[in-house]
Each structure stands twice: as structure tokens, then as C-alpha cells.
Amino acid sequence: IEAVQIIAAAAILGIVGLPTVPTMVGLAGLFCGLSLLPVERASWIFRGLLLLNILVLGMALGRMDGGGLVYERMVIGFVPSITHTELSEVISVALTTVLLVLIDMKCQQFVVRSQSWAIAYWSCLIAGLILVVLAFLPAAVVTSAQLTGILPETIDGKAVIPYILGWVGGGGQTPLGMASIAALALPALGLGSNILRIQTRTSLDVVNLTESVQNRLIFSGVNAALALGIALKGGDIVGLMVCFYAAYLSAVWIPFIAYLLEQGKLMVFSSTSVRVALVMGSVVACVALGWGLFYRRAIWFDSPELTILVMGVSCSGVALIGT
Question: How far apart are CA 67 and CA 61, in angstroms?
Fold first, then answer.
């Protein structure tokens, strides 16, 4: 997932002339540094960057011809458009994203810090409504740009929104245009460092090491280097993101179910069984992820995400029960 953020941010910054490889290296270093900040400070950084990104995209939509009407048509036509999408793709994307939100610590690390149950419930509800509103914003901006006629015919898909934001700012080479484009890359810093922080803590827990500054720095550096290696390979941003989400779910979903069963006093598993299930799910998910990325003829259901989920969750479940 960090690799996806590196690819996206590097593609965006490439519009203003920054070289791809050095930019990816620099972004990996920034992820590593921000991941070492306290969660409270990092959360404020992330929220500030996200708010800036929303404002820039909203300003872009407002500058387009008929932006409001395009957004309205996007919302109304969303459900009918699903019928024109492959069923396997709909299931894999919906299943992966829904299950991820239930357990993903990018969201939950802030929810569990709520001072009361009421704040936790209302924050989740308000956040969900805001996400629904924002989900249609990028597509509406791109469609409005097409209707306005500002997009070159040969533009790459990754560069469409950055190009639009540069146009809003007076051109990609002007100071305001460059600032508008950079604002789109900023949230990747918050999201990427957030994920890296969670990965580092999980890695330290798995190997049973203390969260000292030295250990955190070592594991953050290793995880950032791995993400950089995947990012340098390249690939489709959305496809990579959903595949990585599926791999993450394959590793942690069965241990999470074991936790819920124990909390409900329905069934108790040993710590060894949970660890074996976690390791088995992670290994199988990584293998399936490699198949999906490098050998697509080996995937099932015509969907790499479903292949990863079925293989990882099944093997993790067998490992939990068998041990």
C-alpha cells in the first residue's frame, strides 16, 4: 500500500518536472521519517494535508463548465453503472474495501482513542458520510475537464487530475499551478507514513521486540525499502491498491475472527495457533500477490483480488484450526 502511495505521488510530482526515481526515493524517506512521529502529531498532519487536497479539488470542480451538474449526474448514475462492470470485479473490490475498513488501523487507531462511545459512533458516521460525498469528486473533476476540452488526447491516466489542477493554477509551470499539483501529492505522505507506522508496530509485535527508537527506525527503514522496491516496478495504481488490501486482509482477518470469538466467549485459541494462522495467511497471500502481479494466467475467478483472498484466508483458517 505504501508502494501505491509512492507511485501516485511520484506520478503527480512528475507533472512539474521532478524525475521519477529520485522522487520515489525521497518519498520513501519522508514516509520513514513521518512514521516515527507520535500518532497525535501525525494525525494532525494527515488531516491538514487531506483538507488541503479537498479544497484544491473542489476549486478545480468549481472552475469547470457545469461542474455541479456533472457531480450530480455522477451520484445519480453510480448504481446503474455497476451493472456494466464485471461481477468478479464488483465482488472483489466491494469485499476487499468493506472488510478492510472494519479492521484497518488507519481508521481504528483514531476511533479507539475516542473519549466516549458516543464520540466513536458519531465520528464513524460523519466520516462515512464525508467519504461518500468525496468519493465522486475525482470522477466529476475529470469528466468536467473532458467536457471543457482542456485535456490533451495523449495524456496518461495517472496524470489527468494533476494536469487539471495545474490548469486551474494557470499552468503546470507557474508557481500556483505547481503548488496545486503538489497539494494532490501531499495526502500520500500522511497515508503512507500511517501505514508504515502500523507495519512497524506489527513487525515488532510478531518478533516480540520492544518499541525502542532503534528498533522502530530499523523496521521502518526495511519496510520503506520494500515499498520502494515494489514502487520502482510500477503498475496500475488502483489494481495494486486493491491487491495489497486483499493480501493484508488475508493475513489478519482470521486472527481477528479468533479474537472476536474469544471476546464473545464462544471459542478460545492458543497464542501459538493465532500466530501460525497469521504467518500462514501472510506467506500464502504474498505468494498469491506475486501470481497476480507477475503471472496473471494463474489467477482464479478472473480476479487477482479474489484469488489472494480465497487462498490466504483458507490457508490461515486451516492453520488456526489445525494447530
Answer: 5
- CA dihedral for 58, 63, 69, 75, sign (positive or negative): negative
Segment 166-173 shows an average pLDDT of 74
49-100 residue pLDDT tens: 667 777 877 887 887 777 788 888 888 888 888 877 777 778 877 888 777 7
Question: CA 8 from chain center: how many Å?
Answer: 11
| Amino acid at site 44 | W
- Which of 246, 52, 239, 244 lies closest to 158, judged by CA? 239
CA dist 155 and 163 (Å) reads 9
Measured over all CA atoms, what is the biggest interatomic distance in the chain, rounded to whole angstroms?
63
Cα 94 to Cα 92: distance, rounded to the nearest angstrom: 6
Distance (Å, rounded) from C-alpha 244 to C-alpha 249? 9
What is the DSSP track for 262-293?
Answer: HHTTS----HHHHHHHHHHHHHHHHHHHHHHH
Q: Which amino acid is at 321?
A: I
CA distance 250 to 266: 23
- Residues 261 and 283: their CA atoms lie apart, in Å, by 24
Residues in the chain, total:
323
**Cell triple for 181:** 499539483
DSSP string, 123-151: HHHHHHHHHHHHHTHHHHHHHHHHHHT-S
CA distance 227 to 195: 11
Contact 3, 227 (CB under 8 A): yes
Which tens digit of pLDDT belongs to each residue from 238-290? 677 778 788 888 888 888 888 888 888 888 888 888 888 888 888 888 888 87
